[in-house]
């Protein structure tokens, strides 16, 4: 006879005396301690390198956490999870190679003795990019030729009585990127480039046109620094590397 509770029949069958209900195995919400140690070590090492490296480590850890929660229901889903896991391992491996590569690059730039790093907005990576691409700067007769090589020389786009110039899409794009980053840094922060940038805007130029003119001036500054550095070294560089 079914047991009654408050006048209502019990829907569940009666259990024998001493019966213990078996609970389903629950997944441990806390990962293994060694996983915490590895993550903490990666974060501490990345924090010493800077915010960009720390953000990359955080993104990798978040991806790994989400990946551990995936429960594939088919062979295709399992294959996708394994592919993402391999990509994450490659990402962490490449991210771990960045700090020693930066250290070697900084040492090489310091040994080269260049003064490009004294320009506001050009760091060791930018200076190494310029040196590796330009090589022998004496192959450029004037600063205008060097600016054309960098893609910062303006192109005339006049129409009728309106005289104007437009941005050049020619030249080495890596050199152009380095100069663009330097010009953007100088235009946003207190520097001689910002004074020039604000003066061009006050003269009636747009922001993009003022930034283009600032890039053109920075190309001249870089050209003169390269000439001065080569004169200090005695002008022993006489090679013309391939444009990357």
Q: Tags for this entry?
A:
two-stranded antiparallel ribbon; mainly alpha; disordered C terminus; 244 residues
Question: In brief, what are we looking at here?
Answer:
The protein has helices at residues 33-49, 51-68, 75-112, 124-134, 143-150, 173-188, 192-202, 207-233; strands at 4-5, 8-9, 155-156, 165-166. With 244 residues, the protein is mostly helical. It folds into two domains: 35-112, no CATH class; 116-233, no CATH class.
Q: Could you walk me through the main structural features you see in this protein, from its secondary elements to its overall organization?
A:
- By secondary structure, the protein is mainly α.
- The protein has two domains: 78 residues, no CATH class; 118 residues, no CATH class.
- Helix content is 60%, strand content 3%.
- It is built from eight helices and four strands.
- The strands form two sheets. A two-stranded antiparallel ribbon has the order 1-2.
- A hairpin with an 8-residue loop joins strand 3 and strand 4.
- Helix 1 runs antiparallel to helix 2, helix 5 crosses helix 8 and helix 6 packs across helix 7.
- It is extended.
- It starts with a strand and ends in an 11-residue tail after the last helix.
